[in-house]
Amino acid sequence: RVKKLNDELDAFRTREHDILAKFKQEIDHRVLRASNENSSYFEASLKSLKAQHQRELRLLQDELNEERKNGTTQVEKEITLRKRAEANDASLRKELMQAQDRIAALEIDLQRTQVTTESAQSSWSREKSRLVAEY
Questions:
Q1: Distance in angstroms (rounded) separating the CA atoms of residues 38 and 47
Q2: Which of these, 84, 97, 79, lies nearest to 53 by C-alpha position?
Q3: Read out DSSP for 51-92?
Q4: From 8, 12, 104, 126, which residue has the greatest number of CB atoms within 10 Å?
């Protein structure tokens, strides 16, 4: 009878260990996948914004050089172009700050997920101890 109970307890512990390992692996996989997806999305978004602003900046620089060659209303054109470049820079900085805020929010969500995981593991440990104590 005792041997049978010990065998059942060993089988339960093995199943418990397998379930916990699988659960941890699944959570780790989900967290890693979400982190990779978010990182890829924000990296692509920032690259796209940077490329767009670089194209706009090149266009503005070309316009400025052409006006200098022509010599017509050089001062007025430079002031206008500088304002547009500053507006683009401000826009890019704002978008960058928003992207950084989104990343920070995702990091907070990741921390919450980790806390939840730790809580679930702690709860499972207590339940395990209770079950072991019952047997």
A1: 14
A2: 84
A3: HHHHHHHHHHHHHHHHHHHHTSSHHHHHHHHHHHHHHHHHHH
A4: 12
* Distance set, CA 67 to CA 4, 20, 53, 85, 107 (Å): 93, 70, 21, 16, 48
Lookup: tokens for 105: 């929010």
Is this prediction's pTM over 0.85?
Answer: no
Per 3-state DSSP, what percentage of the chain is helix, strand, and coil (rounded to 5)? 95, 0, 5
| Averaged pLDDT score across all residues of the chain | 88
Residue 9 pLDDT: 87
Question: How is residue 20 written in tokens?
Answer: 């916990």
Secondary structure class of 1 (helix, strand, coil): coil
